[in-house]
Write a structure and sequence with these properties.
The complex is a heterodimer. Chain A has 15 helices and two strands. Chain A is mainly α. In chain A, strands 1-2 form a two-stranded antiparallel sheet. In chain A, strand 1 and strand 2 form a beta hairpin. In chain A, helix 3 packs across helix 15 and helix 4 crosses helix 7. Chain A is elongated, with a radius of gyration of 26 Å. In chain A, 42% of the residues are buried. By secondary structure, chain B is an alpha/beta fold. Helix content of chain B is 37%, strand content 27%. In chain B, strand 7, helix 6 and strand 8 form a beta-alpha-beta unit. In chain B, helix 4 crosses helix 5. The two termini of chain B are 35 Å apart. The chains are: A mainly alpha, B alpha/beta. At the A-B interface, helix 1, helix 2, helix 11 and helix 12 of A face helix 2, helix 3, helix 5 and helix 6 of B.
């Protein structure tokens, strides 16, 4: 009787009244949206993603890869006659035409498709492999750790672009090889980040407690340690997408990425480079596209860092 | 009822580092009956926690080593059985409660998930049953079952420790090792937790090995007391013996400290 009274009087019953439970995501979103620049970045990225998904709705792929030599270097907002599918029609070049008379806006929109695809797949690949390797290195330590970490040190010692160049040069320029090259060069950042986070988490008492419950290594690493290390990884992934888009455009600029006539921002710049004084708009717009996307990803990354940092919790 | 559940014989545990060997536990003997309750008391550094880790097989892999002695649990020698068999015993037949409830729960899993996890690990229930059982366990330790969807930071210190007790008892273990379960808590909350442990012991017939530096805590729940110092048991006996007829000067010192 006495015991039951005591239990009934525990502090629980007082705190019980339904405080609205906020999910972790709602809490995160509340903090993220305070950062206006990050939200702007998110909007820009979403616009580019929508553009990439609906690229065919705006311009057909055949149209933007077909030469219209008579309209070469058309200035932005000029109307010109084009021959397309055996018909002669009027076409408004909103952002002008390049050295083959192809619509620059159309090529930027289709180029977004390539860039977004590269950004997401390479980082997904690097993030999966890098975090798993980093977690294993951090958790087990010893020889396994030395092996993994020296491997990443070697990767880090080679300049990214040079390494990607070597892979693409060895395997031949193709979309898959480009993904592989950029994916591999993005791995080390994730390995180091994950290892560092795991080292701080693995000595905490709840890991020992999980072991005392009979949890095996696999469960401890993937259920208890890794989810607790996600915040820096998410930030790194966001920043990494920007970086890998930049690497892809650099490689294409050097002629080792996406091959013309397929539209890609890097090879658009590369084509237009010779005409910089005669037709600067052919260089300006693809350049702006690259810049805005990378900037947007970096802004989101900064916003995520602030929103996910537990020390800044208010 | 009177059979031996845990029997430690001449247990000697050392931490071996490059520089030297630390003699943490030096040949201790300890017995615990099924459903019984034993207090292991001593100052910090006496080897209490090392004893607990030796039983659980959780000594640090690189440095900690049981050099001598045996730990018999239900007739099996825990010092010789392989790791994967030991893993089936941990959390299932022997559970452990750690000192600091603030850091013993995974911050990103809900209370319910963490209770359900131990049931999943030992394959006693599928996901749905495990969550239902988790709710039951929470109610048993006096927390409304609606709160199973909340995260550790939404609980107070005392409630976290009760969640931890719920986790430890979810698989109906035969033995619960409580390593300073009340040290990090307020005096008033300490009282609730000790009550909880007592209640659980009666309800689940679960033996308790209570590790503490506080003799008054032992008086609350233990039948027998072992006083430990510098890795040795200096005195042992029933609570009455120790409290009213202490023989060892160190025991008298400890008693004087709480009066």
């Amino acid at each position: 009787m006495d015991q039951q009274m005591r239990i009934a009087n525990l502090p629980t019953s007082r705190i019980k009244e339904n405080q609205k439970r906020k999910s972790a995501f709602q809490e995160f979103w509340r903090r993220f949206k305070k950062n206006k620049l990050a939200v702007a970045g998110l909007i820009v990225v979403l616009l580019y993603i929508l553009m990439a998904i609906f690229a065919d709705v705006f311009f057909s792929y055949n149209f933007i890869t077909q030469n219209q030599i008579s309209n070469a270097f058309a200035k932005p907002l000029t109307k010109a006659e084009i021959d397309y599918q055996d018909k002669t029609t009027e076409h408004l070049y909103i952002l002008g035409a390049d050295n083959f008379g192809r619509d620059i806006l159309g090529r930027i929109i289709h180029g977004a498709r390539v860039s977004m695809a590269i950004g997401f797949t390479t980082i997904a690949f690097a993030c999966l492999i890098g975090s798993a390797l980093g977690a294993i290195a951090g958790y087990y330590g010893g020889k396994i750790e030395s092996l993994i970490m020296r491997g990443t040190d070697i990767l880090l010692a080679i300049p990214n672009i040079l390494f990607a160049l070597a892979i693409v040069a060895a395997l031949g320029p193709s979309f898959q090889n480009l993904l592989l090259a950029i994916g591999i060069t993005s791995i080390p950042a994730f390995v180091r980040l994950m290892r560092a986070s795991v080292l701080t988490i693995k000595n905490q008492e709840f890991i020992e407690a999980a072991r005392a419950l009979g949890a095996g290594d696999f469960r401890i690493i993937f259920k208890h340690i890794m989810p607790n290390c996600m915040a820096p990884i998410i930030v790194q992934a966001t920043l990494g997408i920007g970086q890998s888009i930049l690497s892809a455009t650099s490689l294409s600029f050097l002629g080792l990425g996406i091959q013309p006539p397929s539209p890609e921002w890097g090879n658009m710049l590369s084509d237009a480079r010779s005409y910089i004084s005669y037709a600067p708009h052919t260089l300006l717009f693809p350049g702006l596209a690259i810049m805005t996307v990378i900037l947007a990803y970096n802004l989101i990354g900064d916003g995520l860092r602030d929103a996910l940092d537990p020390k800044l919790k208010r | 009822m009177d059979e031996l559940l845990l029997s430690i014989r001449d247990l000697t545990t050392q931490y071996i580092t490059d520089e030297n060997i630390i003699h943490a536990v030096n040949g201790i003997n300890l017995e615990l009956k099924t459903g019984g309750s034993v207090g292991l008391v001593g100052e910090s550094g006496a080897g209490k926690t090392t004893t607990a880790y030796s039983i659980m097989g959780l000594l640090p892999k690189l440095t900690g080593k049981i050099v001598e002695g045996n730990i018999f649990f239900q007739g099996k020698d825990l010092t010789t059985i392989p790791e994967d068999e030991m893993r089936k015993i941990r959390g299932n037949q022997i559970s452990m409660i750690f000192q600091d409830p603030m850091t013993s729960l995974n911050p990103i899993l809900t209370a319910g998930d963490q209770i359900a996890e131990v049931l999943e690990i030992h394959g006693t229930a599928d996901k749905e049953e495990a969550l239902a059982k988790a709710g039951d366990m929470l109610e048993m330790v006096g927390i409304p079952r609606e709160r199973m969807h909340e995260y550790p930071h939404q609980f107070s210190g005392g409630m976290k420790q009760r969640v931890i007790i719920a986790i430890a008892l979810a698989c109906n273990p035969k033995l619960l090792i409580a390593d300073e379960p009340t040290t990090a808590l307020d005096v008033t909350v300490q009282d609730h937790i000790l009550h909880q442990l007592k209640l659980m012991r009666q309800r689940e017939n679960c033996a308790i090995l209570l590790i503490t530096h506080d003799l008054s805590v032992v008086a609350e729940i233990a039948d027998d007391v072992y006083i430990m110092r510098s890795g040795r048991i200096v005195e042992s006996g029933t609570v009455e013996d120790i409290f009213y007829r202490p023989e060892n000067p160190y025991t008298r010192q400890l008693l004087a400290a709480i009066l």
